[in-house]
Amino acid sequence: MLFNPMYWIFLGPALLLGIWAQIKVKSAYAQMSRVPARSGVTGAQAAARLLRDAGCTDVGIEVSHGWLSDHYDPRHKVLRLSREVYAGRSIAAVGIAAHEAGHAIQDARRYAPLVVRNAIVPVAGLGSNLAIVLIVLGVILAITQLAWVGVILFASVVAFQLVNLPVEFDASRRARDELVRTGVVSVQEDAAVAKVLNAAALTYVAATLTAILQLIYFISLVSGRRD
Hints:
Distance between the termini: 18 Å
Radius of gyration: 20 Å
Largest sheet: 3 strands, mixed
Shape: elongated
Strand content: 5-15%
Number of strands: 3
């Protein structure tokens, strides 16, 4: 399928958006990682303050390996922050840390889209690993039913991406509101935090658009075949 020109025609716009989003993230992070937060707190301290004020006293904060590998682990109730974010005192560090704290707050308050996303994760994980294999085998072996099973599995990936969008946008909104409310950043600094978080949000939009266009392509590919 990768050698089919139609595949790239379908996915071209989304792939270009994804590349642009990655450039925006790196640029925004590089710029705002050089701007210190006036409060002087580290990313870990900012996250801890937000969690404490939200009553999330059972959430731990750890250092994770890798550049911008920041994430919230709902199974173990742990925020894992990359070293640059954990110890950084920049606008970028406190913004990213607060975003991940926002996910922990969502989890504690049973934010509905997060609950749905977590429920979809196992099926979406299976779909992302197995769907394309089934579609390719179904097309090559001319077994349309097998290809359709792959399409259905891939639809779970699209569902995950669609549900993930409001989860990520809400986490960023919570982060910005709480950072200003707790005084970690000032009202004047909020625009700088938004620059980092909005750039990161573009990557989720690009991933969702890519998944949707892939699904449309797979449907058109399989529906055009006959056993």
